[in-house]
């Protein structure tokens, strides 16, 4: 498995087609793909707020094997090279939600944010929390 850089639009389009309600795409963004013979996952970095040092990450995958420690480390090293906090919005069933919480992210459930009684889960991961994880320090 390897990370794919420099194909922001292609990866962002691939991810947006796989996230319910994201058909309009991400606008101005950067993206990193995960390749295992073909594109099996992608992370899009969007809604960059330089004034506050925050960015949102949206991910999609067709194969759960993408969530290896080296891949997760690579995908988070990028935003934390210039951000103080990353945020994630997801639904209850997203497999990455469990991983992000294990890294120390705070989670907030916003009821009915996705309509029809469906909650949105907002996770925030500050840089100082990330820097104190075993994963960031290469020990995991």
Categorize the overall geometry.
globular
Order of helical and strand elements: EHEEEHEHEEH
Mean pLDDT: 91
Supply the CATH class: Alpha Beta
Q: Can you tell me the residue ranges where pLDDT is under 50 for at least 5 consecutive residues? A: none
User: Measured on Cα atoms, how large is the radius of gyration?
Assistant: 14 Å
- Helix/sheet category: alpha+beta
Per CATH, the architecture is: 3-Layer(aba) Sandwich
Care to describe what's here?
The two termini are 18 Å apart. Strands 1-2-3-4-5-7-6 form a seven-stranded mixed beta sheet, with helices on both faces. The chain has a single domain, classed as Gcn5-related N-acetyltransferase (GNAT) (Aminopeptidase, 3-Layer(aba) Sandwich). It has helices at residues 8-16, 69-80, 95-102, 127-131, and strands spanning 2-4, 29-35, 39-49, 54-61, 85-90, 106-110, 120-126. Strand 3 and strand 4 (54-61) form a beta hairpin. It is globular and about 40 Å long. It is built from four helices and seven strands, in the order βαβββαβαββα. The protein has 140 residues and is of the alpha+beta class.
């Amino acid at each position: 498995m390897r990370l794919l850089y420099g194909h922001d639009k292609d990866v962002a389009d691939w991810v947006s087609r796989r996230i319910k309600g994201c058909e309009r795409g991400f606008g101005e963004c950067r993206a990193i793909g995960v390749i295992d013979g073909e594109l099996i996952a992608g992370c899009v970095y969007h809604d960059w707020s330089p004034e506050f040092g925050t960015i949102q990450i949206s991910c999609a995958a067709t194969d759960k094997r993408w969530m290896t420690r080296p891949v997760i480390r690579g995908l988070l090293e990028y935003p934390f090279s210039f951000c103080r906090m990353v945020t994630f919005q997801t639904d209850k069933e997203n497999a990455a939600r469990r991983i992000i919480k294990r890294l120390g992210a705070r989670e907030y459930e916003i009821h009915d944010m996705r309509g029809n009684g469906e909650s949105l889960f907002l996770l925030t991961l500050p840089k100082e929390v990330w820097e104190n994880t075993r994963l960031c320090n290469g020990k995991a």
